[in-house]
Specification:
It is a single chain. By secondary structure, the chain is mostly helical. It folds into two domains: about 160 residues, no CATH class; about 35 residues, no CATH class. About 60% of the residues lie in helices and about 0% in strands. It has seven helices and no strands. The longest helix is centred in the first third of the chain and has 33 residues. It is elongated and about 105 Å long.
């Protein structure tokens, strides 16, 4: 029961943090709806992108990736740990707990920045529902059955779920008529064999030098060939008679 209560506290803290951030951002003329923190998954409209129109990607990463993703998750995780330690473990924070909290904040910050850059490129937005679900499943299962049981049971379950997810996704794409491109279906973009030879400026300069040397009285064998290996193209009236 205490673990369930800690999970409720985690969810409430994360939502309350985002509500407070939306309230503060309104003072900076960033008008976001107060319903934004309750949209946990993919949003139909990129409301934050619209509100930040004309601003740089740095502002979007700070607000979306840090203030609305990493910070609420870290605040909820800290509240969860506090309830569990006070009610279940009856322990206090030590150096190990502080280092773990710092590592969690850094990890959440990196994940939030990466997610924000992807959303900026695709002009889409997603909430923190998937991150909340993943953290709650990991923390509740760890506190309920122990870390070793989670490693031995949760990891195979996650791999099976991923297998079924990507399998169903592949089946849906195939039924919709979409398939991966085959090398046999790819056409040749350029026909190098039948492509017309276009002389470069260096080649033209070599041709001019060769013609001047022949006009000066040198034979065709004494004239060096062009760097590409092709002999100099001589005018029809200046070619040797043996050719």
């Amino acid at each position: 029961m205490f673990v369930i209560a800690a999970a409720v506290v985690f969810l409430g803290t994360a939502v309350f943090w985002n509500l407070a951030i939306v309230f503060v951002l309104r003072f900076f003329r960033i008008d976001l709806p107060f319903s934004l923190p309750f949209r946990f998954y993919k949003r139909k409209e990129p409301e934050l992108l619209v509100a930040l129109k004309g601003r740089s990607i740095n502002a979007y990463i700070v607000i979306s990736g840090l203030l609305l993703f990493a910070c609420p998750l870290f605040a909820g995780l800290t509240a969860y740990e506090y309830v569990v330690r006070q009610s279940v473990e009856h322990s206090t924070y030590g150096l190990t707990s502080i280092l773990g909290s710092v590592a969690s904040l850094v990890s959440l910050g990196i994940a939030g920045a990466w997610m924000s850059m992807r959303n900026w490129q695709k002009s889409t937005e997603s909430g923190i529902g998937l991150a909340i679900l993943a953290i709650l499943v990991l923390k509740v299962s760890t506190d309920a059955v122990g870390g070793r049981a989670v490693i031995s049971l949760l990891m195979p379950a996650a791999l099976c779920a991923s297998f079924f997810y990507f399998g169903i996704r592949r089946i849906r794409r195939t039924s919709a008529g979409w398939r991966y491109p085959n090398r046999r279906d790819m056409t040749v973009t350029q026909d190098f064999i039948g492509e017309r030879f276009v002389p470069s400026e260096n080649y033209k300069a070599q041709q001019a030098i060769a013609q001047k040397l022949i006009a000066a009285g040198l034979s065709h064998e004494q004239v060096p060939s062009v760097p590409s290996g092709r002999p100099a193209d001589l005018p029809s009236d200046e070619r040797p008679k043996d050719q």
